Here is the input.
Amino acid sequence: MIKKIYTLLIVSFCLLLSCTTPVNRRSAITSDGLSRCANNFPNELNARIIKDQLSRFYIIPQRIVWISSDSLFVQPEVLLKNNGTQPFFGKQNLCKIKNAGKDTSSIILDFGVETHGGIEIITSQSNNVSPEIRLRFGESVSEACGELHTGKSGYGGGKATNHHAMRDLNLTLPGYGAITVGNTGFRFVRIDLLGKNASLVLKSIRAVSVVRDLPYLGSFKSDDDKLNKIWETGAYTVHLCMQDYLLDGIKRDRMVWSGDMHPEMMTINSVFGFNEVVPKSLDFLKETTPLPKFINKIPSYSLWWILMQYDWYKYHGKLDYLKEQKDYLVKLLDTLSEYVTPEGNENLYKVGMRFIDWPTYRNSKTTHAGLQALMVMAFEKGAKLCDVLGEGEKSVTYHNLANKMRKEEIKDVDTKQAASLLSLSGMMDATDADSEIISKDGAKDFSAYMGYYMLLAQAEAGNYTGALNNIREFWGAMLDLGATTFWEEFNLEEAQNAAPIDSFIPEGKLDYHRSTGTSCYIGLRRSLCHGWASGPTAWLSEHVLGIQVLEPGCKKIKIEPHLGDLNWVEGTFPTPQGVIYVKHTKGENGRIKTEFKVPEGVEVDVK
Here is the structure.
């Protein structure tokens, strides 16, 4: 009995410590006290305890966006302070809300930054009333005010949905006490007090941020503040998506999608280095997709799985993990080879969803070009993995098949998605692809997902200044509209007359989140935190900071900066051996001076 009481005291103390830890997305915060305490649980309980890699941090609201009536609120500013978490009897600063008759009192809070998790509400009512509220989470102010879609259509007709996460619900609060609710992505919260002549006394409201407690080992700084902010925003977007698995989005889509993971994985390589969420998610996809089925029921997503295995081994050099993939990898390559015609054309018809990205979903020419290019890359990199795994004959077979497929001449290429993938696979001249298609009209027709590969293709063509301008124009425009994470979909033309997402929409301005979008991006259903949109973070580290991996596990790297119109850039890059530091400064004659520090065990080739 004494041991159990002691254990409970320790756990309570650890919980108290975790409640007082401030949030800081740029540095590591130690908050594993509860994990250590869990080891002291009684043996019969230990067998049923499941631990994860997630931590909780708390965020105080930054501002009150709106209240419905000044006369029905007393001291709402209390909610913007660290007002403590323990209710008690006695004089204290509290926020009091009441309804007048049937009128509903409402408040919208802004936590200042997109986060993943929910909110904690602490009440301090002096009677036995249990107030009822309507609670709405929003990634924009419009979504926090949006009505819930209740029809059968999964796309929601442009309305907000509870499809993947509860974001609109009614809740009964304790009279004296705390309640925590929510497992979604949000920045704004709207609370409506329900009930005729109802009252509510609030001590505090805090966002509960549920994330992995990770240091940002990679970094990027330059003389362009917008590019710096874009790099950091991409890193933070993916950080939020690194939940128990690597999610596509934290509100919607809370799923593990193979193709969508590749840009996220490349950002993780540049910011966090090795993290178990990537192999765990890759294994999940494999284990839930027995061959000859295709991952996520999309053939291209099985191709992306092969490309991710290649890039993960390239950056981290974990041969033991790669060996665990051998049987599935080889059988997948064999399965895919059955969908190549004798002439070398992809034939992935009627075996799953033909998909490259949503903006080109109904463009059959782009879809064919993209699938052909992805098959070339998957067979080529799959052949290299076979060679590492001692499958010499398979390596030759799939190297030859990649070369055969590369010879197909694809005409009438008219989208940036198709041109980019054809360029990266060696099926289209990189300079022609960039000058004739990708660079046309700047960032017009860029895609939040495939934009990463458009930037890679521009680097292949040597157009680094053009790529930097596209990053500023496309991803920078999201920041200009109030984004703190990057969005599932974005259209520059639609956004021309849009108002920021952190306010009500003025007359004559476009409500971008509510009123735009196509396919599965329609209206408020659209995710405003989507890891696949983080591509500039990985690209800036690889092509501007100039750190490229030459041998598995970063045992040999090349430092080849491309500053474009920048005057200087410096940053860090994580490797299995430690963190690399690099600084490049452009002199008056245009020559670049490079300084670098690398950990022992990393060979450097400087260009």
Summary: The chain has three domains: 2-51, 58-212, 225-473.
